[in-house]
Design goal:
The structure is a homotrimer. By secondary structure, the first copy, chain A, is α/β, with parallel strands linked by helices. Chain A is built from 14 helices and 12 strands. Chains A, B, C: It comes from Halostagnicola larsenii XH-48.
């Protein structure tokens, strides 16, 4: 993690148009979300979440509605694309061009699915660069994030992330459904594979390329037991905790309750914050007193150790900047105040 | 998976010569196999399955007997090779030359073991190309499959599979025994490692390079319990199911009962076939009726989804073409007929 | 594994200076270690194990004390370094220069932590080469081992190991603490991830590059239960056995009791030695009698199989050469004698 914290605890897709009287129902609901239901990234979805015959309407909904709301997180529409079908790339190119032309100031970037090898990702980046130039935006002002969901993208993950380190590429998001279909993965009664090798590589390559890494969607939203159908909170939390453990920066959400859970799991716990604020306070005291060896609670504090403490505080500050309702709800006021005021310099 | 289905649910090795009165006993038995005991690929083995002093006889058995049987699957003799020992490469070169010269029309390709890095695989491909040209076969008519069983081949797996995408390379087969010996893997009481990272990469790289991926052999053929020795069906099925789950196309068989199990697990279940035939039938109706949005049983059917349904049907058709005894035994006649007659075009 | 066995069952770090009356207490204790407590590699630690204000003293302790003891294993001081901070690289350069200048005859190489991508490893190798040349040592006489503990080093692991095959690079050691911090891995109650993908890759790439692979430290040295605090033997043995199973050559030790356990687990068991000595004895008899097919106890012995037997014996001989107290303690005298005298040639 770098010092410049970029948050994406939650990557919430919302279909940009659905076959209801109000076709923008879900998009509006996400744009209006508050508190822990507000995702860090809201992704108006013009790809698999929107029916083929409603995609045009989804694009219009996005262009019309996004500017109407003061959504405090980032906006990243997902467009169409496919490394193996030129027709989808053309659609994606048109969607990107319209989005940048009409609401280039309102979006942080675009999400491109079904990319193939490095060359295909470079091509998608070029499409964004062209729209940016065409419509007068500064180079790099519109980001690119990709869904890793093909054998080719997984095969080139290292090369894609290296390219990403010096480009507009921002996040690598896992897409397990298309991925499993492409590899021929099967559910033989105990679920689909978790693809642990891919998840570990995603976390590593994102870290090596200073990118964000995000887990895949979990669509068993509800569960039925003993006559009752209820939100499947445990299974989603298990998946998100597994992703957090491996160092993924965020998780995919399909639903407001999922957003609450992913936002919570991907922020430092009150215990983690208390511990690391305390360590830095002690470190700062020792520095002031000029004691040479900086050993705190029996642990030697070198620069690497200091950075892990600082990272916790910086993450909380980043959340506090855009989502004060969440930090004020989750942490004691006094602790939050200490985190806000702490001096964070090692030297 | 591409539209052009190539089957290798079962990669059955048979020693090309054994120290018995009839040295070709196992080879003949495999060539005569019927029904679910007939493997997709039969591999007359001149390498580790045949004793050093019987390898010459194994080659003669193969050349003499393969043409005598109407084996309906593919024939892929395994020759000798080693990235670290020129002597074995020379033997392999001679065996490949003899096989192509004498039965080039009868074999689909050769299996080369113990390959090292990409350069070694390219060299093996060149040996096949030379034999092919020397004996008047069209370029690419004799395939090459390799056993991935060295640290070097695993290290270069991505590069080998990329090379494979435009070459005669057809399948990547895992060889766990030599692999574990080379890495120094040990059984400390709970078995050897399963090498999950390698299996996941094998599935991915094969998919990215349009190759087949095949799991390793399982040699605990029999089990003893309560005074009885019996075929170890559960443990083999567990391994094959694990491989199928990860998207491997087939499994290694050492024994007719293993072939029955691997053939069965790597074909769509009757439930999977019924489900996907039904989806395509409904899709085709909707297309005929001209309804715009194609939503079937609550699921939106885009091209990617359609492909997964079609893939099931195409696999069954491919098996039905070469192994009608298996499809007719495994599926209800009416369902099989629907699968045979279905229109499979998305547009 | 190559025929030329290089041992590193145990990579024991000892802080080069600690804030005690005798600042070299732990270093001396390691240099004096005997029997199973003597590690194959002793690593005087001037990096994270020594406080910032004691590092200079740690360097002097190492230079002064290492020549005073007849330590029979290898000596590999760990210096400072960081791919992302030039200041640490400068410190490392000075430490390497002093070590080679003063005790270049006594050390086998240096351990460099926090390396980044291949270019950074090449740079570290160049620093060693310069010190070597400057102080009159033959090219390659001072080795280099690296701690793999950054996303970049993991990302370039294949390329680093390929470079290692023709260079002074000797061992790849996993560093889980910095690695988890860099990736943002978290302990959410059930411990940190084991990073199975990394461990498998480490074993593979080390094998492909003829390098040694070593697991990471385990620092829950003690456990408290039912009022008693005691050495956490089980948990450490579990980790070391997992590493041995995957083919890692050795494990990191922080403590004499850990060294006993890692030395033991990473050497062939008496049963393994008895079995493989027996196989080679039978093989040698068969060779003398001129029987063609070499089948022993129902198992065909080809060159690959023979190598696995020989590897066991060669490892025991390598331990026996430097650590006779261990082999004499661990194996029956008669068995050890048979292992020492065996003819080990296949042809």
């Amino acid at each position: 993690m770098t010092d410049d914290i970029r948050l994406c605890r939650t990557f919430q897709t919302a279909p940009a148009a659905v076959p209801k009287d109000d076709s923008a129902k879900y998009l509006v609901s996400a744009l209006e979300s508050e508190g822990f239901q507000a995702p860090d990234w809201l992704v108006p979805d013009m790809e698999d979440g929107t029916a083929p015959d409603m995609k045009a309407e989804g694009l219009e909904n996005t262009i019309e509605l996004v500017p109407e709301y003061e959504f405090s997180g980032e906006i990243w529409p997902r467009v169409e694309w496919s490394y193996e079908d030129e027709e989808y790339c053309e659609k994606g190119r048109d969607q990107i061009d319209r989005l940048v032309a009409e609401i280039g100031d309102e979006i942080d970037g675009v999400v491109v699915p079904k990319v193939g090898r490095l060359e295909d990702v470079e091509r998608a980046a070029e499409v964004v660069a062209e729209a940016e130039a065409e419509h007068g935006y500064a180079d790099g002002s519109i980001g690119l994030s990709i869904i890793v969901e093909t054998g080719r993208a997984r095969s080139d993950l290292r090369e894609i992330a290296k390219f990403g380190a010096d480009s507009r590429l921002t996040a690598l998001i896992f897409g397990p459904v298309d991925y499993a279909a492409e590899l021929g993965g099967r559910n033989l009664g105990d679920g689909m594979p978790r693809w642990d090798g891919l998840l570990e590589a995603l976390s590593n390559e994102a870290s090596a390329g200073d990118l964000l890494s995000i887990g895949g969607p979990f669509d068993d939203l509800f569960k039925e037991r003993a006559g009752l159908t209820y939100y499947n909170a445990d299974a989603y939390a298990d998946q998100v905790e597994h992703e957090a453990k491996l160092g993924l920066d965020g998780s995919w959400s399909l639903y407001p309750k999922q957003t609450i859970q992913a936002n919570t799991i991907h922020m430092p716990t009150p215990e983690e914050l208390e511990r690391d604020v305390h360590k830095i306070e002690r470190f700062n005291e020792a520095k002031r007193e000029g004691t040479g060896a900086v050993t705190i609670d029996g642990q030697m504090v070198d620069e690497a150790t200091f950075k892990t403490f600082r990272n916790t505080v910086q993450q909380v500050r980043a959340i506090d900047d855009t989502r004060p309702a969440q930090t004020e709800d989750y942490y004691e006021a006094a602790l939050l105040e200490r985190a806000r005021e702490l001096e964070l310099s090692y030297r």
